[in-house]
Model the fold of this input.
Amino acid sequence: MADRRNNFSQGSIPWNILSLAVPMTAAQLVNVLYSVVDRIYLGRLPGSGYLALTGIGVTTPIISVLMGLANLCGTGGAPLCSISRGRGDDREAEDIMGNSFALLLLLGAAATAFFLVLKEPILYLFGASPATFPYANDYLTIYLYGTVFVTISLGMNTFINAQGFGRTGMMTVVLGAVVNIVLDPVLIFWCGMGVKGAALATVISQGLSCGWVLLFLTGRRAILRLRRTSVRLDRARTRQIVTLGLSGFFMNLTNSLVQVVCNATLQFYGGDLYVSVMTILNSVREVVVMPIHGLNNGSQPVTSFNYGAGKYSRVRESIRFSVTATACWSALFWVAAMLLPGLFIRVFNGQPEVLRAGVPAFRMYFALFVFMSFQMSSQTVVVSLGRSRQAIFFSLLRKAVINAPLTVILPIWMGTSGVFAAEAVSQLLGGLASSITMYFTVYRPLGRLRDDVPR
Done:
């Protein structure tokens, strides 16, 4: 018999979403501290200036790919798991979770081997210079040995949140982040390890988060448990998970693609200084989008559960609430970004040359940021309903189709400014296209369906 705890087909939709979104948002904000705190410390390493910070920025596309593998299984499996729960089929939900875990193990091990063998040519391809390669290489080598910890902690934590245990999911991230923050200054400065210390702190903290996730999912508190019998891969089930999860993977992959193109273009037109500026902009963006991710991740289990239960009016209400909330947050940040760009930049590096290059780049990069929230919300909606084709389309549109080509073309006439302008244009076009498509193909058709008739 299905376990009906955390039944999202009952109660207030905003309350159901916020009960998950608030701890998820807190967790997402804390999660960003993994990379942001590293960059704040490394930006202040004596004698290295911004070279260490630039070196870490070069590794960002690779780390994004690794996180994309976690998203492949997490964003692919968790919505299917929630839809099955909504239908009352907890056995199928557990099998989906077990198959996702097996995929995370396999993909994490394969990615570790691949990048360890090819890291040097990849880092130079991604924008490293002879001055920054030693920093990038030291950081990435240690980080890669913790890849399986990263994929499992991120990928399987989505199944904790999908069951309605937002606070437990938050603790997964908080545990790792606190350990990371404590170890960073000890290993970087006191032990004199520099970038190696930052990477080791991250690996240790992710290992602890991984242990926490597995402890909960195999324990008695979980509604759906990770069982040995569910880990055996089933071809049809695996295909469903991967097909839907490709949207999350492509989002990370295209982020990596654009970051590679940005770093290489900035290195060509402006040198290490502008790669450092881009690293700072990406760090700020990671912090700012975390509440948006938290709201969207909080709405996903609620939307998926009600869709599986045939509560289509509640699905539409969930869509309205999440889109409105994310747009409001984006607008608030936009005001701060236009008025106080220097304040954000000084958190990472206060050198005069960084500020001179960074302030106009900051304003241009975030000029149309509000529209990006529409793309992120639309992406979450189609993933929540298991619509893999639309999810993949939204993932590829903004970054691969619009942003990457513009990043190459605009600098021909605009120099380094063209790289930052390309991001703003992609936010506008990608956001409008995604939200309009979602409205006419998902939101309006759901209004014509009667409740309590599961599809």
About this structure: The chain has a mean pLDDT of 85.
